[in-house]
Amino acid sequence: MRSRSTTTWFLALLHLIVFCNITGVSSLSFKLNFTESNSNGAATIQLQEDAFYNKAVRLTKEELDGQITHSVGRAVLADPVTLWDSSTGELADFTTRFTFMIKARVADGSYGEGLAFFLSPYPSVVPKNSEDGNLGLFGSSSADQSSETSNQIVAVEFDSHKNPWDPDDNHVGINIHSIVSVDNVTWRSSIKDGKMANAWVTYQASSRNLSVFLTYKDSPQFSGNSSLSYSVDLRRYLPEKVAIGFSAATGQLVEAHQILYWEFSCTDVRVVKSKKAKSLLVISLTTSVSGIVCSMGLVWCFMSLKTKHTRRARKDQGKQEYDESIDGEFEKGRGPRRFRYDELVAATKNFASERKLGEGGFGAVYKGSLKDPNLTVAIKRVAKGSTQGKKEYISEVKIISRLRHRNLVQLVGWCHERGEFLLVYEFMPNRSLNTHLYDSSNLLAWPLRFKITVGVASALLYLHEEWEQCVVHRDVKPSNVMLDSSFNAKLGDFGLARLVDHDRGSQTTVIAGTMGYLAPECVTTGKASKESDVYSLGVLALEVACGRRPVVLKEDDDKINLVEWVWRLYGRNEILAAVDGRLDGALDEREAVRLMVVGLWCAHPDYNLRPCVRQVISVLKFEAPLPSLPPTMPVAMYFAPPIHLCRFSYTSSDDGTLMKELEGSGVYAKTTTTISSSATNASSSPPSVRLPEMGY
């Protein structure tokens, strides 16, 4: 067995040496059908700004999001494309075909602005103030274009509205470093009808010719005859590695921009083409053979020693596991990727304490600095002592890696080696909503509070209704709402999330979530549903408006429970008295009333009487009237929970709450519940010191 293993290692190494001297990397090619429910296309691209996925890549806001004017979005390939090679001067040929639809909101009304296929420096960065006729490609002022790479864009635009620099309303144009097209042709569009268009964009390196062909035929064959072409040496205008994708924008005039299908192929400029290079390769290979033969003995000895110590090394490093079956589930598409353990150790300086951002539901979160790509990230390290850690790790990656929405935390990658399970997320510089709500040194202003709540609701709308399956989050709370540099809400921590069919919408499971945000029917029946997520959203809305936690033991008896207290004020027409006093009246009272009444509506004890998230957004956007709620909080009746769902052990925490572990099933539930003050005082154990929870 040992001899056979050694021979296999040696032959594999020899084959690799020869193979690497003869062949180059294959050309890039892919086909993505975004309309298929089982498509991995959404995981292959990155969505920026307002772009989202729902059975098509939708580049700008649509009616489900409410206000849809002045929207910008991009969808780009997650990996860079090598356009040319500076060492050889070789320039790639490429061809891309895509099916798209631009549809006017009103058939007989005005619309705008259009979409574009573009190439830009990698990674793709959306300029500020790039809405309206800028198509998300260029900023509208010199201040927005101060970066050296801000204008380095080559694009093919499908423009639907005439701006001062445009030749007419509907036209196809080729743009180089400017929103003003260097060449264009009139486009007999079908925007009012919302028909599907097929476009080809090709580039021939030999002739430096960039060509565009467009048709509305269902499945035409590209004949090579272009409807528009322009001669350009892309090496003069773009770096070696580029981002490719689509961009769109609306202004006061709106329309829907959807990408339904995308295929792309590109030659590999790293493959040596010239006869001279081939001759040099033959000479190099010939002179290398003697060295390879002479090295056989040394390699054989080395591999023999390696085989001898393999068993011992495996025993000593038994924790260094690499579960290929898990990778098979995860590595679908070019979005999140697997990282090596040593990469993440280096990124966090060996998980240094000063790098720790906080404690999550089943592990600690660290700030990391990756070298490839050059990116600041948040790295969640699953607690080794958590029996549920691996299950939640797999659940989170399998769900969140397939989701794409501007209000969801983006997963960058994962790692499972040496007994460790790690998740890599985009870094949120403003940390969690929980941090800002209770940071006395930095009061969260009202406009941001309202914006954040609407953002969380938009995330839930996507999870519940807009994605191919219904996703029940099961742990919506401020510490799981992360904030980017612009204080946009990003819902995270999908360790407890579950996929259910849209027609079912619920799943009976062990109790999971956080007490105070956990719907009463979840506690009594173990039923997690869209309605239970809505309940959590309602509590979060009240917490944001009132600036206090769902349960506060030190308050007067009638104020301990947030929902009950606000409902009593609502019944007395004094609901504004519940607003966070630290705001000192600096708020929009109409928004405050709406936010709190919607919060009560969502937290209705009877789940049948709660709104769906779409209704929540309509009311918060002032597009629907406020609901009429009873002046007294109703009491719903539920059956007692099954015994096997309710076996808890308790450990105290520092804020008067109890953390529970479900012993019967071995499932760590991340639940909290309040205890009486007498029980707290009776405890002989001092409170533990915990870092803040982070919703990654």
TrEMBL record:
Bias (Low complexity): 676-688
Any single GO CC term annotated in Swiss-Prot or TrEMBL for this entry: plasma membrane
GO MF, one annotated term: carbohydrate binding
Annotated Gene3D superfamilies: 2.60.120.200, Phosphorylase Kinase, domain 1, Transferase(Phosphotransferase) domain 1
UniProt cross-references to CDD domains, sorted A to Z: lectin_legume_LecRK_Arcelin_ConA (cd06899), STKc_IRAK (cd14066)
Signal peptide per UniProt: 1-27
Disordered: annotated segments: 676-696
Domain Protein kinase: start-end pairs: 351-607
Record-linked InterPro entries: ConA-like_dom_sf (IPR013320), Kinase-like_dom_sf (IPR011009), L-type_Lectin-RKs (IPR050528), Lectin_LegA_CS (IPR000985), Lectin_legB_Mn/Ca_BS (IPR019825), Legume_lectin_dom (IPR001220), Prot_kinase_dom (IPR000719), Protein_kinase_ATP_BS (IPR017441)
Transmembrane segments: 280-305
Location(s) in or outside the cell: Cell membrane
Top-rank taxon: Eukaryota
Subunit description: Interacts with ABCG40.
Function text: Promotes hydrogen peroxide H(2)O(2) production and cell death.
Name by which UniProt lists this protein: non-specific serine/threonine protein kinase
Organism classification: Eukaryota, Viridiplantae, Streptophyta, Embryophyta, Tracheophyta
Gene that encodes the chain: LECRK91_11
